[in-house]
């Protein structure tokens, strides 16, 4: 009996190790990042903004002066030179610079499996101090320089490599000050199993998506698929699809390159009324109101003299 139990335990442990080992290459293939804006040594002076909900990580590195941030349900933070503000996607917050100062910052998304935010697996601190607070600003500044440099001939390949390296180092620096949330080996295996679902959703946001289709991708019945997916991801499959649509809509609204109607079509809502209704139900604001507020918030850069410049 004891021998049988020992053999079973060893086999179970080996299987878990095998799952985790095979999961690593999958993670490496699916890791992605997107730079959505930033600045280096920007003069800054503006009152505290309204509450905002952004679809990307906000990294702020004050170089001169005091930066402030209020995070919903967490409190008020003051950030000084040598300290870093980190606000992951989907967290309501405000920001402000009550007196003229200088900041470097980055707006960036790190994802896996198409649209899953990497930081859902970590508890990211709002305020980073000490040596870590000194390590992140140079990466933020260098990444901004690399992202804004014009590609030159054959050096474009080198520039792409440099960008990739800097983004990876920034991610590593943030993970180093964050706490990894517990994940069971079975959850890791089931998440790996769901890769076709993540990829399908990401590539078909502009089309109708049925739960039955997603279940077929992983060879499960609809009922079993719903149970496994919700247990591993934390939300039901169709709620995940809606979240992916809304996250994509947030990003497109912030970019200003498409009309609201065009954005609705790209995230699976050919009817503008239905898109506006779904967006408002998710974020409490219409797409138009959201765009106006986010653009206003992201575009405000002030000179020390208090004169407003628009980025």
Judged by helices, strands and strand pairing, the structural class is alpha+beta
- CATH domain class of the largest domain: Mainly Beta
- CATH-derived topology of the largest domain: Jelly Rolls
The number of domains is 2
Order of helices and strands: HEEEEEEEEEHHEHHHHHHHHEE
Rg of Cα set: 22 Å
Overall pLDDT metric? 84
Can you give the helix content as a percent range? 40-55%
SSE layout and pairings?
Blueprint: H1 2-30, E1 32-46, E2 57-64, E3 67-71, E4 75-79, E5 84-87, E6 93-112, E7 116-117, E8 122-123, E9 127-128, H2 130-148, H3 155-176, E10 179-180, H4 185-193, H5 195-203, H6 211-217, H7 222-233, H8 237-255, H9 260-266, H10 272-283, H11 287-299, E11 300-302, E12 308-310
Helix pairs in contact: 1-4, 2-3, 4-7, 6-7, 8-11
Overall description:
This protein folds into two domains: 150 residues, Jelly Rolls, CATH 2.60.120.280; 111 residues, Arc Repressor Mutant, subunit A, CATH 1.10.10.60. The protein is 51% helix and 23% strand. It is built from eleven helices and twelve strands. The strands form three sheets. Strands 1, 2, 3, 4, 5, 6, 7 and 9 form an eight-stranded antiparallel β-sheet that branches. The chain has a two-stranded antiparallel sheet with strand order 8-10. A hairpin with a 5-residue loop joins β11 and β12. It is globular, with a radius of gyration of 22 Å. It starts with a helix and ends with a strand.
